[in-house]
Specification:
- The complex is a heterotrimer of chains A (285), B (349) and C (293).
- With 285 residues, chain A is mainly α.
- Chain A contains 15 helices and no strands.
- The radius of gyration of chain A is 24 Å and the shape is globular.
- The two termini of chain A are 19 Å apart.
- The N terminus of chain A is likely disordered.
- Chain C has a two-stranded antiparallel ribbon with strand order 1-2.
- Chain C is mainly alpha-helical and 293 residues long.
- The chains are: A mainly alpha (285), B alpha+beta (349), C mainly alpha (293).
- Chains in contact: A-B, A-C.
- At the A-C interface, helix 1, helix 4, helix 5, helix 6 and helix 7 of A face helix 1, helix 3, helix 4, helix 5 and helix 6 of C.
Chain lengths: 285, 349, 293
């Protein structure tokens, strides 16, 4: 990414330090909410409800996180984490599998109805789940899929973005590779497994990162269909931890839960930064 | 090992006919080069033999049996692609052995065959590398290796050298030819480069606009081009072609008179290869030299005739000519005159 | 674009495409069709029968002051979110672009908020501005400003805007940074030789070169503000006070699930569908243009 030459246009003594300073201020401001949440997750409830709360971590890290993970408010956070994990991985894997298969069919075959299917899939690009929540809810309820993983996952894998990404990628694979495979005696599925899939590794990984975060961060859908607390996902479960009425919220546990809710996606993004950025650029453009 | 017969093969894309009936018999072990400008249909013809394009009309026989409807894998062919088409995620050894793996050969046997082909192509050191880590020439060899490993009846080459630099191209040209004659495998080779065609072919087929203009040995085509197109396409620099009038055993154009075979009268196209011209103060052809290109062994002189027609001569050795002013008289042996029908472009003498 | 080579057969490709088609049909086309169908009816209060009203639900909605105010709220909200998410991002990207060697470190630090779910972001910001325990609210109080987003409509809007924009700054930063890195050095150097100073160069050379990225982000951020900020609003304000932060998507939810007014909710879904359609068309027009550059 970084350019190799650093000429006089780029840097000058004072200006450089000023730039660093502004950048650091920017990072601190952006980071502050996360820092504050972390601090709150390591202090006691009285320290928080007596403003101002401290800005440096306390010594209650283990107690607060143990409380959150194993008892929580309505349900142990560990359960919600597991639910989120199943949902996020289910959505990511499910979408990738059905998209790979349908993109392969659309790009490498000519079959009756191909164009119609292509446009049908294309249309699904246009409609976020938020817009069709009521009827989709009724479908799920009709199938008896409320409070189930399949109810959490299936409506969210009906989207075309991944199919389009793979289609774009398959179109850039040189025709000669498929021809060489045919001359080598490979049939369609053999070509898919032996050549196309291994070549798509990076795209699959990049897409997985994006879809994992997409799935993990879902809020409205799990809110609607998981009425049973043991099926709550962590992102929607935090809000359920706030007491109704005038009771005081259990802030240290809630903030510990918030931190726990962001750890998996943040770890994925930071550790797979290159893939993540690639996936972002690919899937949006 | 194998013969390939094309019997009036045609190819249509929708309403447009891109191959207009080509017939060719390739003998066992023969190296046939299909040569022509881009868009002439040469690659399409090869891809039909490979089974990558369907044949619209006509019959293809490999070893005497009809192959029109066989899958590529069932035709007992191997193909070398222009961009090599190596599987990027597989090592050299895996690339070469993939076809055998699909055919279900036991692993040790695959390894032995790959090792043998690698030895032949001096790829043994590179077997574990990925295509990305290879140079252009090495990739070319791997593509060859992939073809050889399967010991096919027929090799198909689709412009395999066009992505290499000039020096490597000459070297690979020799290697391919040497390998082919050592293995004795029937080969069809597509190229747009007439030098490749001349140097490699046992026989060549000159294609233009979906039609086979001429089929013959390189020297046949050079010495007795059947059509104006073949005459101009083969040979470098390209043959001079001049509109002339034949009359009672003589050819006239722009005040020049040359001897002609008897029995031809009326307008003809006259072809003179630049390298057949020699300087002669009494020569019948006078050219105005505009530009000289000294190549060392010979010199190319570009200019025009008195009639204004562009003209090129290739003279041995170094000729220092003042461009623009110099006028030069040239002569040519009568047997080196090529005459073509002015309308059909077919050879008449 | 089409492939030259294809494999033969029609049964296999139909099987390959079937999972996606079936899932799209059951969870997408059927519900979307249902939304359109339901928007033409008014169910009785017990949900036992419903009466066909044609476009009655739409007429009612367009005359409904609450719905119209939700439209205005959405417009204000999405404009503010887009600006708040893009301007700081561009500023940070320009700074990072000058720091050739350490840009990667800053990028890693700035990516974090993108991974944080909007709903979690809502909780974090709610915590800072909570009227009882919020640190920022408390310091504002010390400065003599009485922060209360539970009662004050403007403050509520400000809070959901900032909380919604926060994670998007990371996202926009990544795209702006990549675009800045792609600006050819020679152009910058030519401008420098022409005597343009940094900010002059930025406004006359760099910014115009960034315009495709800027336009793309504009559309994407508007779509985000429209549809993906539900979690922020639900956690922080619940659409209040007095509907001040009720955007269109939130109203589909509150009318459909809280108010149980299915006909109206479905009609709202259909209107949103049209809005998404228009935004998609805009986006594709833009992509087409890019391809033809």
């Amino acid at each position: 990414m970084a350019r190799e030459i650093t000429g006089m246009v780029e840097r000058r003594g004072m200006g450089l330090w000023l730039t660093h300073l502004l950048m650091i201020i920017g990072v601190l401001v952006i980071f502050f909410p996360i820092w504050l949440a972390f601090v709150a997750s390591t202090v006691t409830q009285p320290e928080i409800v007596q403003p101002p709360m401290p800005l440096w971590p306390g010594d209650r890290f283990v107690e607060n996180y143990t409380a959150a993970l194993f008892s929580g408010v309505n349900v142990p956070v560990l359960t919600m984490l597991a639910n989120s994990m199943v949902m996020a991985i289910g959505i990511a894997v499910g979408k990738i599998i059905i998209s790979l298969l349908s993109a392969f069919a659309i790009v490498y075959f000519r079959f009756p109805g191909r164009n119609i299917f292509f446009w049908l899939i294309f249309l699904t690009l246009m409609l976020p789940v938020e817009v069709r929540i009521v009827p989709t809810y009724e479908v799920i309820a009709g199938f008896g899929m409320l409070n189930s993983y399949s109810g959490l996952i299936f409506p969210l894998i009906a989207s075309a973005t991944a199919t389009f990404l793979f289609r774009q990628f398959f179109l850039t694979v040189p025709d000669e590779l498929a021809e060489a495979a045919r001359v080598d005696g490979a049939g369609a599925m053999r070509f898919f497994w032996d050549i196309l899939l291994p070549m798509s590794r990076t795209n699959v990984a990049a897409l997985f990162v994006i879809l994992f975060i997409y799935g993990w961060n879902q809020y409205l859908w799990p809110l609607l269909i998981t009425t049973d607390p043991s099926m709550n996902t962590i992102v929607m479960g935090i809000k359920q931890m706030f007491p109704s009425g005038d009771d005081v919220a259990d802030w240290p546990v809630i903030m510990a839960t918030s931190i726990l809710a962001m750890v998996p996606p943040v770890v994925v993004v930071i550790s797979m930064q290159k893939l993540f950025i690639r996936g972002l650029v690919d899937s949006e453009k | 090992m194998a013969t390939v017969d094309l019997d009036n093969i045609k190819k249509r894309f929708g309403a447009t006919e891109v191959i207009k009936g080509v017939s060719l018999s390739v003998q066992d072990g023969e190296f046939v080069v299909i040569v022509g400008p881009s868009g002439c249909g040469k690659s399409t013809l090869l891809r039909m033999v490979a089974g990558l394009e369907t044949i619209s009309e006509g019959e293809l026989r490999i070893n005497g049996t009809r192959a029109n409807d066989l899958e590529p894998m069932d035709r007992d062919i191997a193909m070398v692609f222009q961009n090599y088409a190596l599987y990027p995620h597989m090592s050299v050894a895996q690339n070469m052995g993939y076809g055998l793996k699909i055919a279900g050969l036991p692993k040790p046997e695959i390894a032995a065959k790959v090792a043998e082909a690698a030895r032949l192509l001096q790829l043994t050191e590179l077997l574990d590398r990925k295509p990305k880590q290879l140079s252009g020439g090495q990739r070319q060899r791997v593509a060859m290796g992939r073809a050889i490993v399967r010991a096919p009846s027929v090799f198909l080459f689709d412009e395999p050298l066009s992505n290499l630099d000039a020096k490597l191209r000459v070297q690979m040209r020799l290697e391919i030819k040497e390998l082919q004659s050592k293995l004795g495998i029937t080969s069809l080779y597509v190229t747009h480069d007439q030098v490749e065609a001349m140097t490699m072919a046992d026989r060549m087929i000159v294609m233009n606009g979906g039609v086979a203009e001429q089929i013959g040995t390189p020297l046949d085509v050079y010495e007795r081009p059947e059509t104006l197109f073949a005459a101009q396409f083969i040979g470098s620099p390209s043959m001079n072609v001049i509109a002339a009038e034949a009359h009672e055993g003589a050819l006239h154009f722009g005040g020049v008179t040359l001897p002609a075979p008897t029995g031809i009268t009326g307008p003809v196209m006259l072809g003179l290869r630049p390298e057949h011209l020699s300087p002669n103060p009494d020569g019948p052809v006078e050219m105005q030299v505009m530009l000289a290109e000294p190549l060392g062994a010979n010199t190319l002189l570009h200019g025009k005739l008195a009639s204004g027609a562009g003209f090129t001569a290739s003279l041995p050795g170094v000729h220092r000519v003042m461009p623009g002013e110099a006028s030069l008289r040239l002569s040519i042996e009568p047997q080196n005159l090529h005459l073509f029908d002015a309308e059909t472009g077919r050879r008449i003498g | 674009m089409e492939k030259r080579v294809t494999f033969k057969g029609w049964l296999l490709p139909l099987c390959l495409i079937a999972p996606q088609v079936v899932i799209s049909a059951v969870f997408f086309f059927y519900p979307a069709g249902q939304a359109v169908w339901q928007s033409l009816f008014i169910p009785d209060p017990f949900g036992l029968s419903s009466r066909f009203v044609g476009l009655g639900n739409f007429e009612y909605l367009l005359g409904d002051p609450y719905y119209r105010s939700a439209f205005v709220t959405t417009a204000i909200f999405s404009t503010l979110v887009t600006l708040t998410a893009m301007v700081p991002a561009l500023f940070l990207a320009v700074l990072a672009d000058r720091l050739v060697n350490s840009a990667g470190v800053y990028r890693t630090l700035l990516i974090w908020p993108y991974a944080v779910a909007p709903a979690v972001a809502g909780v974090l910001w709610l915590f800072m501005f909570n009227t009882r325990v919020g640190v920022v609210a408390w310091y504002l109080g010390q400065l003599g400003y009485d922060w209360n987003h539970v009662l004050n409509q403007g403050e509520a809007m400000g809070l959901v805007v900032v909380a919604s924009s926060w994670g998007r700054i990371s996202y926009n930063f990544l795209f702006f940074f990549a675009a800045l890195q792609a600006v050819p050095r020679s152009i910058i150097e030519a401008a420098a030789i022409d005597g343009a100073r940094f900010w002059r160069r930025f406004f006359t050379i760099v910014l115009p070169l960034l315009s495709p990225t800027t336009f793309f982000l504009l559309v994407v951020n508007v779509v985000y503000a429209f549809f993906e900020t539900f979690g922020v609003i639900h956690t922080i304000t619940g659409g209040g006070p007095q509907q001040a932060t009720t955007i269109l998507v939130y109203k589909v939810f509150s009318d459909g699930f809280v108010g149980q007014d299915l006909g109206s909710s479905a009609a709202q879904s259909v209107i949103l569908l049209v809005v998404v359609g228009l935004l998609t068309v805009v986006q594709f027009k833009y992509i087409e243009k890019r391809v033809h550059y």
